[in-house]
TrEMBL record:
<dbReference type="InterPro" id="IPR053135">
    <property type="entry name" value="AKR2_Oxidoreductase"/>
</dbReference>
<dbReference type="Pfam" id="PF00248">
    <property type="entry name" value="Aldo_ket_red"/>
</dbReference>
<dbReference type="InterPro" id="IPR023210">
    <property type="entry name" value="NADP_OxRdtase_dom"/>
</dbReference>
<feature type="domain" description="NADP-dependent oxidoreductase">
    <location>
        <begin position="18"/>
        <end position="215"/>
    </location>
</feature>
<protein>
    <submittedName>
        <fullName>Aldo/keto reductase</fullName>
    </submittedName>
</protein>
<dbReference type="InterPro" id="IPR036812">
    <property type="entry name" value="NAD(P)_OxRdtase_dom_sf"/>
</dbReference>
Length: 404
């Protein structure tokens, strides 16, 4: 395993982390007596394999069903001082609720403290306010740190670049403290948050990439074309290397569901050297060439279409994300991934905001959408494109894993 300094925390962080959202017994918290013993055996075997390969960062969240509770059955059997343990606790308008939930999470985990405490889900301005306002969740987390319940405080986010950068830049007036690390999305198919990584690096924050293999393209079941374009690497190995060649990125989450889920990721380790750019260069060229062949120039960057924030788009249609998923399907045959993500729209709140381009969403605001599209370089055809994408990708209503 290779390790990197996790920003100003000074922790020696493995370049892969063992995420805890896929090996637990379901997405509803439940008493230990109701947990299937087979899932506990699998969880412990997964943690053992993680530790065998040098991945000592175990990361979970209060919202991951019974993950904390099941980990709490195993942590007392392990050497605590050799582990980096992180949990994330959802923000609340009432910081006393947040404080109490952290204590309850520690009880579930059977720990006196966690190394990393995450403010889970600074996804919009409202939740940013819950975190940083006077008496808010960040102040509650600072209190927990003073009480020895956590060592470092960070945040996770699925938010916009603007919201993320505000959280990165925040300094608490009374203490002069700011957030120590960030969990965010950034990988080959989604690079919009590059400026956030640069801002976090400038403040010497730890940088943790969320779900690069799942949200980053369901690469564990990538289409044959993507395998061909990424040769000689597996698409997951390519994506890992693409991320980790950036030294300011410290760790990638592996949401392992079973002990074998680490193996393809480990293949990247021999390539994390001076030869990595030469290995990546032809793959990147093939991917870019294919993308440019299949996607019109004016649509290639969905985040540069000139769109207003989602809340200001008529019907709150997430046009940028819809165009992105359409482009991936056209360029790389990533239709299954597009369906996986597209059908979350309208069902995942601020974790994946905005609405689908369905007739029931578009028809009531069609004239307003036509006016918006007409004002953009893409013109009116943009509306037809997102409606065609709905026909391609819509299957059924979907929910986030934690809500299914």
């Amino acid at each position: 395993m290779q390790y990197r300094r996790f920003g100003r925390t000074g922790l020696s962080m493995p370049v892969f982390s063992c995420g805890g959202m896929r090996y637990q017994d379901g997405w509803e918290d439940k008493p230990l007596s109701e947990i299937d013993p087979k899932t506990q055996v699998n969880l412990e075997a997964t943690i053992n394999r993680s530790l065998e390969v040098g991945i000592n960062h175990i990361e979970t969240a209060r919202g991951y069903g019974c993950s904390e509770r099941q980990l709490g059955q195993y942590f007392p059997k392990l050497e605590r001082d050799k582990l980096i343990i992180q949990t994330k606790v959802g923000l609340d308008a009432d910081s006393d609720v947040f404080y109490a939930n952290v204590l309850d999470s520690l009880d579930r985990l059977q720990l006196e403290y966690v190394d990393l405490l995450g403010l889970h889900g600074i996804n919009n301005e409202e939740k940013l306010g819950w975190a940083i306002r006077p008496g808010g969740c960040f102040e509650a987390a600072q209190r927990l740190r003073r009480e020895g319940k956590c060592r470092f405080i960070g945040f996770s986010t699925h938010g916009s670049v603007e919201v993320i950068n505000k959280a990165i830049a925040y300094t608490e007036p009374k203490s002069g403290e700011s957030l120590d690390y960030i969990n965010l999305h950034w990988y080959y198919i989604y690079q919009e948050t590059r400026s956030c990584i640069e801002a976090a690096t400038a403040r010497d924050m730890g940088i943790f990439i969320i779900s690069p293999s799942d949200k980053g393209g369901q690469l564990y079941k990538a289409p044959p074309l993507l395998h061909e374009l990424c040769e000689p690497l597996h698409p997951m190995t390519f994506n890992d290397l693409f991320c980790l060649i950036n030294k300011e990125i410290h760790t990638l989450s592996i949401g392992a569901a079973r002990p074998s889920d680490f193996e393809e990721h480990l293949d990247v380790l021999p390539h994390l050297n001076a030869d990595a750019p030469a290995l990546l260069r032809p793959i990147l060229k093939r991917l870019q060439t294919r993308y440019e062949e299949k996607v019109e120039p004016e649509l290639r960057d969905p985040w540069a279409l000139g769109l207003p924030p989602i809340k200001d788009i008529p019907g709150q249609i997430n046009i940028g994300r819809i165009v992105q998923l359409r482009n991936l399907a056209r360029a790389y045959d990533m239709t299954d991934y597009g369906k996986f993500r597209y059908n979350l729209l309208g069902n995942a709140a601020d974790w994946f905001p905005g609405q689908k381009a369905s007739p029931e969403n578009i028809d009531p605001v069609r004239s307003e959408l036509e006016a918006l599209c007409s004002s953009l370089p893409t013109g009116k055809k943009l509306l037809s494109i997102i409606e065609e994408t709905h026909e391609l990708l819509f299957e059924k209503e979907a929910k986030r894993l934690s809500e299914s």
